[in-house]
Amino acid sequence: MTPAELSRDADRAAAAGDIGRARALLEQLVAAEPETIDHWMKLAAMRRAGGDLPAALDAVHRALALSSLDFMALLMRASLLERLDDAEAGEAYGRALAQRPEGALAPQILAALAHGKTRYDAHIAANEAKLARAMGDAEAGASDEEAKRIARFRSNALRLTKVFHSKPTHFHFPGLVEREFHDRGAFPWLAELEAATDTIASELDAVMAAERAELVPYIQYPEHEPLQQWRPLNHSRDWTAIHLWQNGRTIRANARHCPQTMALLERLPQPRIAGCSPNAMFSLLAPETSIPPHTGVANTRLVCHLPLIVPEGCWFRVGAETREWKRGEAFVFDDTIEHEAANPSKALRVVFIIDVVHPGLSRAEQAAVKALMEAQTGSGVGGL
């Protein structure tokens, strides 16, 4: 019989409920055409229907050898491992779930996926509890910041969180620690900044009321620039800024209304790079507005947020960690790691933003960064 005849007769036998004959025909078919994944999947189904689960699993493995990410093969493998009471079943369901195709699926497939998700979630929960017990002694002696990183190490290992890396659009200095939100202990001046929250907020009121206050779109790029991530917000009044420092230049129309804030900025470790930094601004995000995922210009400086006006529900994500802004609680993050924000409320959100020198840079390295970036002034690269 030709392969086409074997396939036709096997389908007819299966439809008639003759599992034994269908299996025998499919055994001949895979011998004739061993590189066809559909043949192996049909054979796996007949072996399973006949109760020969190990042989069915072997056929699925042969199919996966031809296409290791095939969704149906992965789902059948997970189901077979579960029926064989194999400890790998939970993880196998996770692999199948990761390859779920787009679009509508048959009801029986949806039911299998729902069951698989339940099994996978239980597997992850059990594994997480096991790892937490194993790490308990080490975690007990950790500081708060260390404990956060240890917990993230565990969630990364379980693939509950994604690993994000620094991806600056222009300048990457090698060897700097990649950290989404940096430890407060590295920035002792945060306490002074937070203590000035009411003062800074008061001066925000003054500058917003000033006749000559320069309220400008946060994103301003020529339309021809290849910056697709910013299209919805380019030149938009939904995300605006009142600059005090902008690319190393004092915006006097605004700064003159904020003398105490400007005096405080002089005491903070901001980069001094002509044409690039320092930067300090009030960032205003309109109601029901989102800032898309993006990355910053250079990993040689970090960014500090001091929330001033924060309606309920406003959030900020850097990498795999999402926080809600809280008035007067500042933090420092690496904006060259993917980040995004949203104001889902009906009110305005305002955050005071500054850039600061990355503490991992030595004096010689800071001088080198300054020299290189100043040599690039005029190339279209700015600050925040």
Structure description:
The protein is α+β, with helices and mostly antiparallel strands and 384 residues long. It folds into 2 domains: 3-128, Alpha Horseshoe (Serine Threonine Protein Phosphatase 5, Tetratricopeptide repeat), CATH 1.25.40; 184-375, Jelly Rolls (Sandwich), CATH 2.60.120.330. The protein is 43% helix and 15% strand. The chain is built from 14 helices and 11 strands. Strands 1, 2, 3, 4, 6, 9 and 11 form a 7-stranded antiparallel sheet that branches. A hairpin with a 2-residue loop joins strand 2 and strand 3. Helix 3 runs antiparallel to helix 4 (53-66) and helix 6 (89-98) crosses helix 7 (107-134). The longest helix is centred in the N-terminal third of the chain and has 28 residues, at 107-134. Mean pLDDT is 91; it is low at 219-227.
